[in-house]
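Feature request disguised as a bug: please show the residue count (302) next to Arsenite methyltransferase in the output. Example input:
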Amino acid sequence: MAEILDSVRSKYGAVAESTLSSNNAGVKAVAEAFGYSAEELTSIPAEANMGLSCGNPTATANLRRGEVVVDLGSGGGLDVFLAAKLVGPSGRAIGIDMTPAMIERARASAASGGYTNVEFYQSTIDRIPLPDASVDCVISNCVLNLAPDKPSVFREIARVLKPGGRLAVSDIALKGELPEAIAQSMAAYVGCIAGAIRIDDYRKGLLTAGFQHVEIVDSGTDLNAYAKVENQSGCCSPAMSGDSCCSSATAANATTLHAELSDLLRTYDVNAAAASVKVYAIKPTSADIDHKEPCCASGCCS
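Example output, currently without the count:
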């Protein structure tokens, strides 16, 4: 588990220190392929988008003015900044990410963009640094599949949500068996494929954590869209390096995440086994629990 987290942190840290942004045609194309409009992308800092999405959770979260929304694995802040506009000055949009460079990049964009209702915290998503029942909505974009201990993440989401609060997630889930080469590949794990779980297991995990009205829908998006970013991350941010480009080692690491995933996508048809999914669930209120029918009365007993 520690090895996985270290690898994820290293790869995504290198991406955070690169110049990947919506100013790169391929990065912008990936975001648009997974559901973001050109208007959404131009309304937020370009550096918030690095081509790491697999959907647009803010489109299904039904965010309202004054709400508190938390983005798990917030990266450069793409969904946090979009959410901030939807919840307004009276609401809060909070990003959680375990990678220091991502937090630094997101905070820099928040400062330059003049955002006053956003916050970013460094933490793993199985230990969310927020009080119980303090959040109206939890969103996440292609990150829950990276968590080694998904049941712990589901329980943490349930803990921080208010009764009646909701989960709106874009993620990768499995609908069949992955080829062995992908299932055992660390590059595929970091690339959001090998760590994914079956759609049925995803649903069971959320139900076990106490959620109701769980819906998981295959978006039908072509996962080969990730290949659009290849060869666009070779040069790091001057602000990070103090020069026009970072060291060759850092630049290579920044390129590796997208390049290795592109190689896998060219070799294997991951669309046959994996899917970009939209996940939605509700944390029940005490009234929901009090009026819940016994299992056998609803016909779910064996």
